[in-house]
Amino acid sequence: MPDLPIETLTFLFTDMEGSVKLWEQHPEAMPAILTLHEAILRQAIEANGGQIFKTVGDACYAVFRSAPEAFAAGLAIQRALHAQDWGKVERVRVRIALHSGLAEKRNDDYFGLTLNRVDRLVHLGHGGQTLLSEAMVEQVRDVLPSGVELRDLGKHQLRDMAIPERIFQVVAPDLPSDFPPLRAIGMCPTNLPAQLTSFVGREEEIASVCSLLRRADVRLLTLSGPGGTGKTRLGLQVAAQLLNEFEDGIFFVSLAAISTVGLVAFTIAQVLGVKEVASQPIIETLKDYLRPRQILLTLDNFEQVIIAAPVVTELLAVAPQLTVLVTSREVLLIYGEHEFPVLPFALPDLDRLPLQGDVFVSALSEYAAVKLFVERAQAVQPDFCLVGENARTVVEICARLDGLPLAIELAAACCRSFSPQAILARLTGAVGPSSLRMLTGSLRDLPARQRTLRGAIDWSYNLLDIGEKKLFARLAVFVGGCTTEAVEVVCNLGGDLSMDVLDGLTSLVNKSVLQPARGIEGEPHFTMLETIREYALERLEASGEAKLLRQYHAGYYLTLAGHAEPELRAGPQQVAWLDRLEQEHGNLRAALTWSLERGEGEIALLLSSALWRFWYWHSHLSEGSHWLDLALAATRSDKQMATVRVRVLNGAGNLASARGDYERARALLEEGLALGRELGMASKADLAPLLNTLGTVTVNQGDYQRAQMFYEECLALQREWGDQVGIAHVLNNLGVVVNNQGDYEQAQVFLEESLARFRELGIKWGIAYALGNLGRAALCQGDYARATKQIEESLALCQELGDRDGVAECLARLGGVAAAQSDTERAVALYRESLGLYQQVGDKPGVAECLLKELAKVTGMLGQPVHAARLFGAAEALREALKSFLLPDERASYERSVAEARARLDEATFAAAWAEGRAMTLEQAILFALDRQNLANIA
């Protein structure tokens, strides 16, 4: 085949499935198999006008001028492989991918995004499966051989590819056509937790629920039923089954750790990675995020926040492609809800089954309740099996537990110590008191199945020794889990536990009343199923220790927050502490709630003072403001806490400023400043941060001169007090505000001193900030080499710290350097990479100011005025929505770029493109900017 010019070509990639395993099983036969395999591929490819240009192991890469010829080659390969006798090897299965696009030929090889895409595509498939890109389908759809069809598998995200690909499968009557879901890791964005045990039964329920969720008229489905029926596990299994069917992802949101209705929207947003936006309630930000997306949300344990059901209605009303699957003991009773009751497992009717023998055992094994008991019993007793001697007993146990999966699992776990006959004797009361009847007398209003579950848990509880019972009840004080250290401090009151704490926790895990999990940095973390925790809480209240335990609990988490505070401000372990506080957020909320309910406002104020930076850095802005406001209100007249109150006012001002509520921020900060001044010179350490934050608020409102006054007063106090971190920080802020006013030389002086101090202190986040701002100052002065060096060093530090927002900002600044040097190709690449990161972290100002605007300028520079006008319009609309403004040093350049784009078009065309951009949603604008088709002539 002669050399191909640079044009639209079609590529066929193949890969043999399971070749490593074949080599292990048939080492002597594999050389001949590979030779035959290659001969089949080469004959089909060359017979259809193609050329093999590379082989890697058993993978083959071929190129064609004609898409139909490439399609014919792929079909011929699969048919020949399927019909071939492979001797000792049952079958050789090869996956094939075909895609058309531009490619560059260099030294008998091909390069470009087209090849990257087909390479990603082939690795999604299974042996015997042929996959086509949408570009390929467009060229062969009308020339398919008789009987051959294309099956649309939907859109999938390819690794390292920004734009999802719609994928099709070739279906021929003489070839296999049923394959598992595509292999893409992360093909559907999801956070579904991995399950540690097998899923037993519920085949019909899974099929029914999946069928309902595929219907266009079912957008809210509630899996309802009492505790212990397996609603959560069924919901997770259904969600896993539907992966690939929701283009923008499937997400699991656990509501078990919250009881405050107002936190429902925040919890959903946190799972989705949606960050709060200045001056906008989180529910509105969440709506904006969900509006264009096709997502399945699984909201678990909704019963404890049932009055938050209208939140679900609001989301469904604005997001037409959103589907919600709820698990709850109580239906939501809102418009559009479909209910699916989750019933206990069906039980065998012993009277209708053979009395004994293998047929009897085999018939019983088909029932999910029995199968679940056997599998879970084997997990703790590997040699356990269902035989004639115990089969009827196992069925009677399942019947006594009313077929409830959780109760069956608890009972089966006891096979570690008891035979099925002994378990049944305890359940029926033949040995000791009847566990099933123990709690029914005072709880007659509960459903029968819930009473049965309570009895099963009570029976499991009675298998614990005295020390284990005490520890089990005390563990109920924790919300969302606990560490070993926390248990040792909170639960071992005066050392009265009769066991080592770790031994006790291990025993409770082994007896299935406590769940192990991996915490921060591999530290053990323990959780309780919510149903079991409710039972444990009752035991704790009955013990008379609840009040004391909650006091110890609050004290422990106050100490933890106190240790975290200096690390959050300036410590080298900031990231690790942020992660730990996130893990303990449920407990921190519980400690705050207890302190406020008990009138312990001082504890709430101290906790809030220590935690506000956590809420700030992890974007819990509204929730943090909520707790800070409550703590301030509870201690308004407490003179002894005045110094702490100043710190909390500063924190509340920071969070309000970050949310864009500048008036509220100013009021809080000025109140703190007045109180601090009233306290006198001893409070300089607290006055300076207030002045610093007031400066930032004033910068955001565009009053640079007043901001500079606040910063300079702050700096004077910090120098007098000797706060080295504070001095470095405010010097950085002074450098930014002076640079914004065009005094680049003075900005450099401030920023270099800030950098030197941060380096001396070893504070990496401060070094990164100062370097990034120095790089921007150098860019403003036209010193591109220095700007590049400083920004790249800042970028490396941000990457090390995991600061994605900082990485995005550095990439955007490097894009600005490239654009200033007329390296437009590099500028576009950097801006697009930065835009993707800003989208991930939810930084709308970053998208609007740093990227859409800058991309628009570069687009205009490259002779694409229509695209530039659209992006300018989108950026303008976003700035108006965010109430943001252009810095003085940016406005002239921006207005010049807009004028240049306008001059290249007639007024009507420019106005239409501008209006089209303004009408775009944030998501549409980002997709437009990231779309390689739109920017093909640029990048």
Shape: flat
Low-confidence stretches: 432-452, 935-939
The N- and C-terminal alpha carbons lie at a distance of 31 Å
Helicity level, as a percent range? Answer: 55-70%
Determine the structural class based on helices, strands and strand pairing.
Answer: alpha/beta
Q: What top-tier CATH class of the largest domain fits best?
A: Mainly Alpha
The major sheet is characterized as: 7 strands, mixed
Q: What order do the strands of the largest sheet run in, or round the barrel if closed?
A: 2-3-1-4-7-9-8
The total domain count is 6
User: pLDDT average, as an integer?
Assistant: 82
**What is the number of E strands?**
17
Q: What CATH architecture label of the largest domain applies? A: Alpha Horseshoe
Provide the β-strand percentage band: 5-15%
Count of DSSP-assigned helices: 41
Oligomeric category? single chain
Notable characteristics:
939 residues, alpha/beta, Alpha-Beta Plaits, Rossmann fold, 10% strand
Explained architecture:
The protein is an alpha/beta fold and 939 residues long. The chain folds into six domains: 8-171, Alpha-Beta Plaits (2-Layer Sandwich); 203-341, P-loop containing nucleotide triphosphate hydrolases (Rossmann fold), CATH 3.40.50.300; 350-461, no CATH class; 464-544, Winged helix-like DNA-binding domain superfamily/Winged helix DNA-binding domain (Arc Repressor Mutant, subunit A, Orthogonal Bundle); 571-750, Serine Threonine Protein Phosphatase 5, Tetratricopeptide repeat, CATH 1.25.40.10; 824-930, no CATH class. The strands form four sheets. It has a seven-stranded mixed β-sheet with strand order 2-3-1-4-7-9-8, with helices on both faces. Strands 11-12-13-10-14 form a five-stranded parallel β-sheet, sandwiched between helices. α10 (309-318) links the parallel β12 and β13. The longest helix is centred in the middle third of the chain and has 25 residues, at 546-570. The radius of gyration is 32 Å and the shape is flat. The model is unreliable at 432-452 and 935-939 (pLDDT under 50).
